[in-house]
Amino acid sequence: MAATQTKLRKDSPSKESQKESAQAPTFDLAQYGITVADIRRNLSPAELYKEALRQDAQCDVADTGALIALSGEKTGRSPKDKRVVEHPDSKGEVWWGSVNVPIDNETFDVNRERAIDYLNTRQRLYVVDAFAGWDPKNRARVRIICTRPYHALFMHIMLIRPTADELRSFGEPDVVIYNAGEFPANQRTKGMTSKTSVDLSLERKEFVILGTEYAGEMKKGVFTMMNYFGPKRGILSMHCSATADKKTGLSSLLFGLSGTGKTTLSADPGRLLIGDDEHCWSDQGIFNIEGGCYAKAIDLTPESEPEIFQALRFGAVLENVVFDPETHAVDFHDTSITQNTRGAYPIEFIRNAKIPCVAGHPTDVIFLTCDAFGVLPPVSKLTPAQAMYHFISGYTAKVAGTEMGVTEPQATFSPCFGGPFLVWRPAKYAELLAKKMEQHKANAWLVNTGWSGGSHGTGSRMKLKLTRAIITAIHNGDLAKAKTQRDPVFGFDVPIACPDVPSEILIPRNTWSDKASYDATAQKLAGLFRSNFEKYADGARPDVRAAGPAAT
Ligand code: ATP
Ligand code: MN
After folding, report:
1. 87, 138, 416, 419: which has the highest count of C-beta atoms within 10 A?
2. How far is the C-alpha of 167 from the C-alpha of 182, rounded, in Å?
3. Is 277 tagged catalytic?
4. Model confidence at 23: pLDDT above 80
């Protein structure tokens, strides 16, 4: 067996030892107090598969070649467990509160040391050195230190992979993430409220992860850093997907909270894909922060989402999916581990991805919302003031299950469509967006990918095909020309015709059999918007304040 393996491998052991002696200096993590000798830096996907399948009982391979991994107890982010060091240099800049809960430097050090102590108990560690940001002038060098090969593969996918030359000259990273997620935080440590702690120091540019192995925590950690350092330099960081026009190279942005369709709708064969989740807008145009995509995998089918389906192959990671023990075929409808099953793949796995992932200034800024009340129109055109109002509101709705199978929509408002990742106050991002949209004359739209024909329970989710037709009509200019009708409650202009979309669904009231119920539900949602906006009213421009639904 060993002989065959030696033959099969180009890099035979003798050649490897030659390489080692010629290739000084060897890589270590001594500067962080990490003494583990066996450090595997930037392994190839194939090597990471090998490690994952040999060392990690929570990993397997799908029949399509994707690496399957279980993330353990946590199958989503832990926003309540995020902490930010309160430091004199950044104290006045940070939006303190439930998103950014302060801890002192001492507590950060305790958790950092705890993570490092744990890392030091491991036989072997994995390091991924890679970039965040496709604009070479504005990219950050990121170092991930982790224990699970699947985490290394995930960040190899999600960050921008350096070339061999770039890796050789990588130097010292700008940002370091210590992922000791297998090991819990100590609840007796000051400021800890659970066994999970995700701690950020803006001054040290370090992230410490304890008590969660959900891989998305690392990617959103990098995004949070960008959300601090971007605006500091006048660069707007945004929780949105982006596509570009094949002819003009100009872009379009899709903002939205989780599950509203950023990833799904950005995989659009008619457009170039720039990225599915995190972008920056600079004076030169837009650029993706990431090198990969992280799609929701629930109910994925090759018919409805062919681009994403085919991307989940060798080199991709499938998190928390259930598969057939014999064939290893994945059942995307099985949510017994979590509703939040995910697939991560390098962006070039999408055939029309544009590499490098940069594009011109946006022609359109689209806010996606999944309105489970079913009262917002499938598409509305927003004035600049309405755009700011909706950006600050960041509305979507969840369908929360209650006792006895009764479900009731629950409104979520998250400023800038990405509250959990903001570091500055929302107004900082809103002002930058307003300025840039005005400067580049971008149109603003609100697209409801949620319910039509009634609230959740009576109506049904907007057909993906119809939402895609709406997005296409925005991009080719059809909707900018369409006749509109003013919504009496929300005040925006609603296009009354759109190619490939039945006109009767464009005005939601028409689709409800019970008009009185529509009116009451619309008023209810309007009220939720108004009471949420009160939090931001003081700092908002008067025209923005007036751009929400009118009080009755
Ligand atoms: P996250 O920030 O968590 O990554 P996201 O905004 O990228 O969320 P998607 O991964 O695109 O969200 O998830 C949208 C989900 O909703 C997909 O599972 C998609 O199949 C489903 N869906 C159903 N109908 C629609 C629709 N009309 N438009 C968009 N998505 C839809
Ligand atoms: Mn997404």
Report:
1. 416
2. 28
3. yes
4. no
Q: Using the structure block, give the residue that is written with the tokens 């999408």.
A: 350
114 an active-site residue? no
Q: Cα torsion at 487, 490, 495, 499 (round to 10°)?
A: -120
78 labelled catalytic: no
Taking the CA atoms of the chain, what radius of gyration do you get in angstroms?
24
Q: Which of ligand 1's atoms lies nearest the C-alpha of 466? A: 27
Amino acid letter at 100? N
pTM over 0.90: yes
Residue of 219, 239, 260, 500 best suited for mutating to test ligand 1, as the one with most atoms within 8 Å of CB: 260
Annotated active-site residue 82? The verdict is no
**Could you tell me the sign of the dihedral formed by the alpha carbons of 545, 549, 550, 552, in that order?**
negative
Contact yes or no for 419/82 (Cβ under 8 A) = no
- Ligand 2 mean position to 121 CA, how many Å? 35
> Residue 449 C-alpha to ligand 1 middle, in angstroms?
8
pLDDT at 20 over 50: no
CA 84 to ligand 1 center in whole angstroms: 30
| Chain centroid offset of residue 335 CA | 20
At residue 237, the pLDDT reads 98
Tokens of 474: 């925005």
Ligand approaching nearest to the C-alpha of 301: 1
pLDDT of residue 30: 97
Q: What's the gap between Cα 464 and its chain centre?
A: 20
With a CB cutoff of 8 Å and minimum separation 6, the contacts of 371 are: 395, 396, 397, 448, 450, 451, 525
String of DSSP letters for 346-374: EGGGSTTB-SS-EE--EEEEEEEE--TT-
Enumerate the β-bridge partners of residue 398. 410
Question: Which atom of ligand 1 lies nearest, measured to the CA of 340?
Answer: 3
Pocket of ligand 1 (CB under 6 A): 256, 258-265, 277, 295-296, 298, 449, 461-462, 464, 467
Distance, CA 89 to ligand 2 centroid (Å)?
A: 33
Q: Which of 199, 245, 277, 371 is catalytic?
A: 277
Task: Fill in the amino acid letter for 376.
Answer: L
pLDDT of residue 25: 62
User: Both tokens of residue 96?
Assistant: 């303190």
Residue 254 burial (CB count, 10 A): 29
Question: Is 220 assigned a catalytic role?
Answer: yes
Nearest to 134 by CA among 322, 290, 306, 335: 290
Phi-psi region of 304 (alpha: psi -120 to 50; beta: other; left: phi over 0): alpha
The catalytic residue among 82, 114, 220, 545 is 220
The residues placing their C-beta within 5 Å of ligand 2, an ion, are: 262-263, 277
Chain-centroid distance of CA 342 in Å reads: 11
In terms of phi and psi (left: phi > 0; alpha: psi -120 to 50; beta: otherwise), the region of 383 is: beta
119-156: pLDDT as tens digits: 999 999 999 999 999 999 999 999 999 999 999 999 99
Q: Which of 82, 143, 219, 239 is catalytic?
A: 239
